[in-house]
Please model this.
Amino acid sequence: MFPRDEYHWRIAKARQAMASADVDLLLVDSGELLAWLTGYTVSETMYRAAFLPRDGNPWFVLRALDEAPGREKTWIEDVVGFADTDDPHSVIAENVRARGFAGARIGVDTHSPCHSAATHAKLAALLAGAEIVPMPGLSESLRWVKSTAEIGALQQAAAIADKAMLAIAQIARPGMTTRDAAAVASAVFLREGADTGEVGPVVKASGSHEFLHGIFKTERLDEGDILHVELIPRVANYSARLMRPIVVGRPSRAMRETAERLIALQDRQIEAMKAGAIASEVDAVLREGALSQGLRPTYQNVTAYTLGLYTRTARTSDFSRVLLPTSDWALEEGMVFHAYTTAAGLGFSETVSVSRGGGERLTRTPREILYGPKA
Model:
């Protein structure tokens, strides 16, 4: 998916962070940072890690069963596989010592989902002569600003989301089920080149916004029901996201009026997503607007969160950068967000890239309530 010079850029960013922390070696075990830095990632069925020296060539230590696919995907030539009978931490520590880093300062992202307290204690004991240096949040901060190639992957994923959303709208009619809709989206994902057929939340909307994390189940849709669809296709592990309400039949006047007001507020927020803007001020455009117009009784959730590379971790979304009233950081050109808003059973979202002139939508589905053939 990515040329070698893309990885040169990523290595340079990682080594700049290493220099700032004055570490000799970077241990990488976060699934997402592994994919970003090496081109290959795998679940933590058994502990695995890649190592990037501040000077010199990197190496990768992983389960022998994963060695062949790892070599196929990664640009790293030095790949070490261990048997299932081996202790992964001991093999990793031995590799660190064998390469001359027994007394090194070793940087570790202590916020990595794969770096448990037990793993940290084991490695500290096995590498007693080294100094393990916490670099919390490194796995996310290195990836906040996207390269042109990364934006390209997100654009591909966004195009798949657009096609799948419109395909669902075309079949929306009384008697269909949420499972029917999810099956249509999954087929589009696989046909158009997404990594998997995993769709995202597809549920019957109800209430104000409580349906956002609704449990997927087979629900029959009747005339006037709102099908809430959130699509999360990934291309090369890069996930675009898109939400739309799809009404069975025709939307009521009240629905259309609410949608117009929500969309207008979100349009203003997207326009405000320019490099240098303070995140809390961008958040306020939508949050305070929705509250002042009475569209929501309360607004407790974020209005946008980081998009980019997602792999097998315990989380489904990256909240290392979010839009909230407490977000006091500045947006940077090349950041990408899932901007979303909901009210009265209607949810709208876009994949948005930050630029100097404002937010740019990567998803292109019409910004309106979608609906299928009239019953």
Q: What stands out?
A: The first strand starts at residue 25 and ends at 28. The two ends are 44 Å apart (CA to CA). DSSP finds ten helices and 17 strands in the chain.
